[in-house]
Amino acid sequence: MKRKIALILAAVFVVALGFAYMASQSAEADDVYTQTYQFLIEKGFTPVQASGIMATIKINSNFDPTATAPNDLGYGLFQWVGIRMERLEEFAARIGEPVDSTETQLLFMMEELDTYWGEAHEAWGMSNFLKAETPREAAQIFYEEYTRPGHGNMEMVGTFAEEFYEQYATY
């Protein structure tokens, strides 16, 4: 009987630990989402645009700045590759911050938008992104034009954007 009680208590403890871990993971994700949203709003993006960018991050890396694509073909929040990855590394070194930092990668995204894409809005659809009226539209444009995945789930990125907008637009 004592053994049964001990096993039941152990099982309850393991389940409680699992719930505590899941709650901490959820709270950590909420912190990253909130910080990212605040960063984007502070940089001048509208709630629609911020939600679209966040959906792109979610679908590319699930907000993990160390995420790598299969076969190491992409890295970070936006799965940078090639010259864009080299520029990210140079940017991180220049500002003296780690390349695997969420803030570093968001700052680099801003630099890319301002420096490399700023002069050629139309070449990648920046003006369409800035005119997007819904989170879904903003997400689909940003995902397709900024990250240029070559494939992807446009429906899912739109859904993520709507969820972020619903959660943070009135924040």
Order of helices and strands: HHHHHHHH
Strand proportion, as a percent range, falls in: under 5%
Spatial gap, N to C terminus? 53 Å
Structural class: mainly alpha
Assembly state? single chain
Instruction: Tell me the overall shape.
Output: globular
Helix count equals: 8
- Number of strand segments: 0
For the largest beta-sheet, the strand count, sense and barrel status come to: none
Percent helix? over 70%
Q: How large, in whole angstroms, is the Cα Rg?
A: 19 Å
Layout of helices and strands:
Elements: H1 2-42, H2 47-61, H3 82-95, H4 102-116, H5 121-124, H6 126-131, H7 135-147, H8 154-168
Features:
171 residues, single chain, globular, mainly alpha
Can you tell me about this structure?
Helices cover 72% and strands 0% of the residues. It contains eight helices and no strands. It is globular and about 35 Å long. The N and C termini lie far apart (53 Å). Residues 9-26 have low confidence and may be disordered.
Tell me briefly what this model is:
Helix content is 72%, strand content 0%. It has 171 residues and is an all-alpha fold.
